[in-house]
Task: structure prediction
Amino acid sequence: MEIKYCDSNWKKVDYICSLFGQRFGVSVTRAMMYPDPALFDSHRARALLRKKLHGLVVAWSGVSPMHCFSRAILHVWCETSHIANLLQEAFPEVSSLLDMQEDVLMVLTVAEGHQGWPIFYESLYKVSGMPREGGEWCLRTQHAHHPWFGINVKPCVRVV
Result:
């Protein structure tokens, strides 16, 4: 079901879910830094949170009454645990500045290493074939000189 807003160009949540009798608007984003995730710093963490939390405020105010939600979840896919830690440290400050600390839950998912690369760098990948036995998709890079790949690396993502 498509979520209805007062205007088609309005900021949007990715989906709405119900948990424990409450409706949540869920926004999903990625926290990453190319070419070196170690360059992601506290300034970038605060900037990302300000942008995404502000987007939730705008989405909240423009959603149609039939799709209204009472709380929000910001789900962040983090390229490294270091990035997740920076976001966790910045969240209380940024959410309180926007007066959202009681209304937004932040969920951090860390996808480190080559199995997480398709989440962060999907433009470098294309899926070839069907899932192999064991439920793995073999992904091939479109750019032969990606800095993290060895010549024979074929990263796979397990289908759960």
Residues 117-158 form one domain. The first strand starts at residue 15 and ends at 19.
